[in-house]
Amino acid sequence: MRNAKLLFICLLTLLSLTACYYDHEETLYGASSNQPCTDTVGTVSYMQKVVPVLQSSCYGCHTGASPSGNQLMGTYAADKAMAQSGKLLGTINHAAGFSPMPKGGAKLSSCRIATIKKWIDAGMLNN
Ligand code: HEC
After folding, report:
1. 86 Cα to the center of ligand 1, angstroms
2. Domain range spanning residue 12?
3. Residues 29 and 3 reside in one and the same domain
4. How many CA atoms lie within 13 A of 41 on its CB side?
5. How far lies 39's CA from each of 1, 36, 52, 109, in Å?
6. What is the pLDDT of residues 61-111, one digit of tens each?
7. Which of 50, 54, 108, 123 is 20 to 30 A from 31 (CA-CA)?
8. Is the C-beta atom of 102 inside 6 A of ligand 1?
9. 106 C-alpha to ligand 1 centroid (Å)
10. How many domains does the chain have?
């Protein structure tokens, strides 16, 4: 009886720990569709909101001396140029006529795409 009670408490603790970890991951990646997309509130900062997304999903292949597909990213000027050409939004939206990006990876969450779109629509500020 005592052991069963202990086991139950252990299980509950384990469950709550797992839940916490999951929540944390969702916050980090903004992947959940049932959580509000807070990144698009107010002015979208290039440095604080756009770069972290591009860094985790794009820069790995598109920086350095020989970026994939000869598509350079990773500086404000390069990222802005890609945005201006329409390729940034086209590729992450998996729009017709563009190669879907990130290559071989999951499509960015709608929150992340909305964040990048808002930065572009606001004039691609270096903010
Ligand atoms: C795993 C490596 C990899 C990742 C990650 C990656 N790319 Fe690419 N990207 C490529 C390769 C390889 C090509 C050239 C072949 C092609 O177009 O499919 C390419 C091509 C492109 C092109 C030109 C395609 C076109 O239709 O004109 C753009 C723009 C681009 N990537 C943007 C991005 C963006 C934005 C991200 C992040 C959301 C990203 N890439 C993530 C490998 C990658």
Report:
1. 13
2. 1-34
3. yes
4. 4
5. 49, 9, 12, 12
6. 999 999 999 999 999 999 999 999 999 999 999 999 999 999 999 999 999
7. 123
8. yes
9. 13
10. 2
